[in-house]
Amino acid sequence: MRTKIKGLILVIGLWIGSCVEPFEISFPQGKKILTVDATIIDTTEEQFFTITESESRNSVTYSFPIRQARVEVLVNQTEKVLLTEKNPGIYALPRSFQLKIGNSYKLLFEKSDGTKYESGEEIMTSVPDIDRVYDEFRMRGSETQTGYDPASYIYLDTTDPADEKNNYVWSWKLWEKQSICKSCVGGRYFTSPPPLGKCESEEKYKDVPYFDYACDGNCWDIFYNKTINVFSDIFSNGKPIIGRLIAKIPYHLREGALLEIKQQSVSAAAYRYLKLLVDQAQNTGSLVDTPPAAVIGNIRNVANPDEETAGFFMVSGVRTLRYWLNRENARESEAVPTGIIGHQIYYEPNSLPPDPPRPPLAPCVPGKYRTNVKPEGWID
Predict the structure, then answer these.
(1) Greatest CA separation found in the chain?
(2) Which of 37, 130, 349, 379 allows an S-S link to 321, with CB 3.0 to 4.6 Å?
(3) Distance CA 294, CA 26 (A)
(4) CA angle, corner 119, sides to 122 and 274, nearest 5?
(5) What InterPro entries does the database record attribute to this sequence (predicted)?
(6) Rounded distance between C-alpha atoms, residue 56 and residue 31, angstroms
(7) How many Cβ atoms sit within 10 Å of the Cβ of residue 20?
(8) Residue 5 lies in a domain
(9) CA distance 125 to 164
(10) What's the mean per-residue pLDDT of the chain?
(11) What is the enclosing helix (H) or strand (E) of 313?
């Protein structure tokens, strides 16, 4: 049976885009936990930290931004770089800020009530290039609640430097072409009110499972990895890393998809933290399992070290490669695509006079999981 993890509620779980994001685990009702999402990578894009306070009420977790904090990054124990609050609880590094290999970095921040926090010191390490990416199609590829679905297994090769210790984190982001931008249950889609329109329940369609509506223009759905993929070269320093499994991409469509793979280097402390998260997530919950330990990050209250805080300040080198998954090997098999929307497409039938022409098209609403902008590297 699963043992409760005392005190900690939000921990770093997924490396999505350019930073880590927290996810929830159980914690005592009414307890407030300070949560910090702060990762710096070697990019020229603007980078942000998020500082929030979370509280559980009636089994629901609420998150509140920490506003008007003074947030700084200490470089090589001498230079302080001040961040600017762009939105409540979201603090931006200067666009000119860049990581340098060998430099040390520490996060410092002070809340408006004077409470001070600091992270452990992180040292920027190098990360090798991704040498090769390739895929293999499997009929029994990804496990589901009812069995196995076909999937493409994505692998990479990289060359681990022989003269240094390296710890790796891999993540991915997938674009799939979407043709359905709205589904309505028990009713139909109407384009009013603009710009998004809405589904409206209608008595005569109450027994209809759903109607699907085609996209008004190009649209891509975006998927992200949901597991942590970490590796240390402690026992294989300097040896090539061959055939590292990066992703299991479901066979959504017969057409190709675009995959972005990130290879990141992290410190030994960050690796241990992420590895502990992996080990706890894979806990089967049997009676002989070792109970999960409290996952404590590297951020502490200067005056009260016993205060439990969530999150881990990290610095990371990153190498990115975009790979076109053509799915030719899938099409050569007898596999049937599972679809991208989770059900068979069922369009609203065309209307007959005197009704106005239907069905309408639905807009592709951009966001974290959808875009109407053609991704770089997409092949039509």
Answers:
(1) 77
(2) 130
(3) 11
(4) 65
(5) DUF4249
(6) 7
(7) 26
(8) no
(9) 9
(10) 87
(11) none
Q: Are the beta carbons of 297 and 311 closer than 8 angstroms?
A: yes
User: How many residues in the chain?
Assistant: 380
Torsion angle of alpha carbons 327, 332, 338, 339, nearest 10°?
60
- Give the model confidence (pLDDT) of 260-271 as tens digits: 999 999 999 999
Same domain, 56 and 200: no
366 within a domain of the structure (yes/no): yes
pLDDT, residue 297, reads 86
Residues 351 and 208 in one domain: yes
Rounded CA-CA distance 364/217 in Å is 7
Query: How far is the C-alpha of 119 from the C-alpha of 109, rounded, in Å?
Result: 9
Residue 235, Cβ neighbours under 10 Å: how many? 6
Tokens linked to 151 = 């999937």
CB 186 within 8 A of CB 205: yes
Q: Give the range of the structural domain holding residue 370, as residue numbers without chain letter.
A: 180-214+346-380
Q: What does the pLDDT look like over 336-357, one tens digit per residue?
A: 999 999 899 999 999 878 778 8
| Closest to 269 (Cα-Cα) out of 299, 303, 292 | 299
Q: In this structure, how many other beta carbons lie within 10 angstroms of the beta carbon of residue 194?
A: 7
236 in a domain, yes or no?
Answer: yes
The answer, as to whether pTM is greater than 0.90, is no
Place of tokens 């921990």: 11
**Domain check: are 115 and 141 in the same one?**
no
Q: What are the C-alpha distances in Å from 351 to residues 182, 253, 360? A: 18, 29, 11
Question: Which run of H or of E encompasses 68?
Answer: none
Pairing of strands 104-110, 116-119: antiparallel
253 and 134 assigned to the same domain: yes
Contact 221, 370 (CB under 8 A): yes
If asked whether residues 289 and 142 sit together in one domain, one would say no
